[in-house]
Amino acid sequence: MKKKSVNILTKKTSGASTKYIFECDGCSKKFSTKDILAKHILYSHETQKNSDTTAGRTQVEQTAVSRLTKMFNCDICEFKTSQKRCILAHLKAHVAKRVYCCNNCGYKSIMKSNLHQHMKIHTGEKPFSCNICEYKCIQKRSLQTHMKIHTGEKPFSCNICDYKCIDRSNLWYHMKIHTGEKPFSCNICEYKCIQKRSLQTHMKIHTGEKPFSCNICDYKCIDRSNLWYHMKIHTGEKHSCNICEYKCIRKVDLQKHMKRHTGEKSFSCNICEYKCNRKDSLQRHMKIHTGEKRYSCNICEYKCIDKSDLRKHIKIHTGEKPFSCSICEYKCIHKSYLRRHIKIHTGEKPFSCNICEFRCIRKTSLQRHMKIHTVTKPFS
Question: Where is the C2H2-type domain (predicted)?
Fold first, then answer.
């Protein structure tokens, strides 16, 4: 029998068990299996993926890399994977006679182990916890991914833009932004998305289902992440700006806010000179050019571009004014109106004229004032 050629560097024996350690020629790191070594070569040594390096790889590395990059395709659907066990598990989904079902929700699986893992969502069991922060999770691999947040490790990078991430699946979804691919679409409205779970969450808007509820107040929502952010309202946890007094619950909102101070406007309209610091602001602006007003009031003829504008408008009909001033009896429809009103009490006037000493609370008031300086007086 021909002996298999492998690059075994050390051999450790502990009792009856024997463990072979494979070492990377690039950085001398050691691994227990060929697959782990292959993943390390592919994703840790990005600059070495050329033909010269390929030729210089050991036989173990070549075998492991080719094994990892080999794709298994499903003959029934478009599913692809690099792991043989995954394709076998996937094929069972097409032919499975025995299905394991959750008694609490509609979850189904062909594997008992998956159902066991799923049940932890209902029981609240989270056996894996981070030793740096309070993060807890159901799966060990989720903890391993989380730990990269603390180490700052982002091994997966986009070859088109500067995007980097801690998880391969995040990169896979990111690449669809460049291709414009949105394979999942709603059969009720025109909504399209990249991820299947995004569509599942969206469908709850139509069904009115809100499975996640706050145990402190009456708040309910369609997505677990929304509930997580909501809970911070009760705990008072907020991210704060180091320039002004702005505070927010979401880190991404703070990042968007900081662009106001830096003046960065990375998104621009290709029709007019409009620029902004948020992608959703640009998308909303583009509807001005297309004339699209997909949201309409069912009481009057009001139409608008944005759903949030419609929600604000509806409150005019209902008379609802959920935001009130703690100093006077002022009440309003929107939180931004209350923030603007509070400046009357504080005396704050953030907008000032660069020609005269005029100062005001609202940006529109400053724009109206500037016309005084630009208007040409007619000859008498």
Answer: 22-50, 100-127, 128-155, 156-183, 184-211, 212-239, 239-266, 267-294, 295-322, 323-350, 351-378
pLDDT digits (tens, 9 = 90+) for 136-178: 888 888 888 888 888 888 888 888 888 888 888 888 888 888 8
pLDDT digits (tens, 9 = 90+) for 74-133: 777 777 776 777 777 777 766 655 577 888 777 777 777 888 888 888 888 888 888 888
Give the Cα-Cα-Cα angle 274, 158, 25 (nearest 5 degrees). 155
Dihedrals φ, ψ of 11, to 5°? -130, 120
